[in-house]
Amino acid sequence: MQHLDEGTIHSWLDGALSADEAARVEAHVRECPQCAAAVAEARGFIAGASRILTALDNAPRGVIPVAAPRKRFDPLVWRVAATVLVVASASLLLFRDGGREVRNATVSADTVGNNTGPTAVADVAPAAPGNDETQRETAKAPPMTAKHSGTAGESKPQITKRDNARPSIDLAERSVAGVAVTDTLTGAKKRAGVTPGVAYSGITPPPASQPNIPARENNAIVDQKTGAATGNPPSSGYAAAPAAAPQAAALEVAPSRILLRGAMSPNALRGQLPLRVVGTPRTFGAKVTLYEVAPGDTVTLREESNLRLGAVVVTGARAAPQTRQSVEKSSAAEQAKRADSTGVNAADSQRSAGAVRSMAQAPSIPAPISRVEVADGVTTISWLDATTGNTLKLSGRIPEARLRQIKIRLEVERAAAAAAAKQNP
Amino acid sequence: MTDVERLFRTYNAALVRYLTRRLGDRDWAEEVAQETFVRALRQTSIQNERAWLFAVATNLVRDEARKDMRRRKHLALLAEEERDAMVESEETTLERAQEAAMARKAVDALAERDRLALLMREEGLDYNEIAEALELSPGSVGTTLSRARRRLVESYEALQKSQEEREKNAAS
Fold this sequence. Notes:
CATH class of the largest domain in chain B: Mainly Alpha
Number of domains of chain A: 2
Order of helices and strands of chain A: HHHHHHHHEHHEEEEEHHEEEH
Distance between the termini of chain B: 63 Å
Shape of chain A: rod-shaped
Largest sheet of chain A: 7 strands, antiparallel
Radius of gyration of chain A: 32 Å
Helix content of chain A: 40-55%
Structural class of chain B: mainly alpha
Number of helices of chain B: 8
Oligomer: heterodimer
Largest interface: A-B, 36 and 51 residues
Radius of gyration of chain B: 18 Å
């Protein structure tokens, strides 16, 4: 028999030959030392090749860096979370104790359209009030953000590339304090980019600008446009949206909607995110705060102190009712979050709604006069803060209508902070 | 379990290893493997699953096709499960890194067909499957493999030798 060729030897060793052929090869190898040596060599090559190929298994994951372990303790997030918590609990205390006037005043101003994300429509279940409501609320809120970010990243191939999951996590971490809670609650989830959609699909909230509120909440949605045009009757028990903003300005924001709830369910200025402070540059004679209102969009609030003796005296006298109203209004936001745990009273609701509305419309209280300037694309609203007597200037490269809404949010937040400070000096 | 899930669970590990060895990049390998399973979804019937998958993966590498992200999601989740279940190998030492670099060089020095046949064989494909995947005649697979193995080992040894010489020169 002819000597075996290398291919046949490998085929034989690989078990690829038919039984007949294999037997023939085996017989030959037994008799032929030359072929036996070739078989030994082939075995060596097979084992060697295998070993070499195994060395390739430690291949790097390419140039794309593997997603870093999630930063659990982002100091900023925790700071914001702590602030929100303090403000929230202070407001709650305030209204448990002395807030007889405002029970369930709620203003729903789905402020700035899409950028505020789904958090503008927090899911407050009207039924089943209980002690754990607050907890549930907290537990529910974060996924919205997570979900939102997940949705935002959906068009990207985030699942196949590890790093793509990262930006959405960042986004989520950045957007609200509530997400800090997500981190702790859903700490087990490794990659936010993938998990939220799966984990929370059951409690996906409606997007902010979409009117598909669950029917069980018995919400009627009134387009702000219609509301402004027809003039909603006060008896409807809802509070006109941005309190201090002229309705004309609100008209410009198309997706803005007012949530009008039934008599038994409170209106809500719900789930609005605190404006994110991105910087406080030091300036002489003024306090300057930079807020991020949307990714990449910032507004500047400049608070110039007009501290004069006269001003302090005069403002002090005037401040009381105004502060109170501001507090009422701001507390409405906090109150709404806990709407279920507090008793709902339609009369209260109307009353407080009226109180809030009066801030915007009632001529008896001198509403702060604001001035609007537009220069080089920067819109600036200046007004006198009735509480502190300081001149506030809010400016940003965004349309006036939107800036006004941010102004309102700022006022609400400032009032809430003031209330908290008052409560816990 | 859907059919593609079964395919995935059965072949993904081998396919990813094959592709990782072929491409030298695990991310890319996973991506191509996923794409392969996405293609499998579209098939009404596959005669020889393993041969088909390896052939498609090989072609995908050739075409660098990266499409159809949407359908990958599910597969990505499965891949993640699998990855989480896998124990990460210990830290790569310098020596191992050198070995890997030489192995990569030696593998890259092979002719494409030899390389693919060898990598497929390492993943357990039989001669008929390799022949089908690479459109070879079954009789030539043995020859292809023997050539591939010999060349791989020889070029690796040559690299090793020159490495040792370099080290010796550096030491003296």
